[in-house]
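Following up on my earlier thread - several people asked me to post the actual chain instead of describing it. Fair enough. Here it is, all 161 residues.
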Amino acid sequence: MKRVVLTGLLIAAAGIAAYAIKPLAEGKTYSALGDYKIQSDNQPLTINGKQHLPYVITYANSDKKVRVAVDMNKKSKIYYVISDDLSVQYVSFRDYFGVEKLDKELATEGYSTADASLNRNEYFRQKVITSGQSWKKDQTKLVAAYFPMLLENVESMLAAK
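Reply from S.P.:
Thanks for posting it. Predicted structure:
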């Protein structure tokens, strides 16, 4: 009887663990980092005095993780994209979605956009990624797909797996 109960508990634990690491979304970046996976993160991230439960984006060809915290207000959504190599914010207003450098007040919290790490040509291309209403549900997917192109030195995020 003890074996049956123990086996049942192990199966239940494995099922819960498998559910916990299931990606929320997956897709292609068409960059050197390869395909992405988006998962939820249990470690809070504090930005502008607010605690967020961020998303974590992982790439097939990199061991590094990108954390995305979403801040919503009446007029916009701001996606703070924080990584070791580059930090930016994507903004979603009523009519468009695009990238910006991090606000200067975030520098006091240790977050800033490093110009040396930023691909300026791609940055200006991504100022308006899309407009209209059809993209509203896939914003984190857009962040995951477009962020690798902003890196000036993609090799810094690549890892030999």
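Helices lie at 2-20, 120-125, 139-146. That should answer part of your original question.
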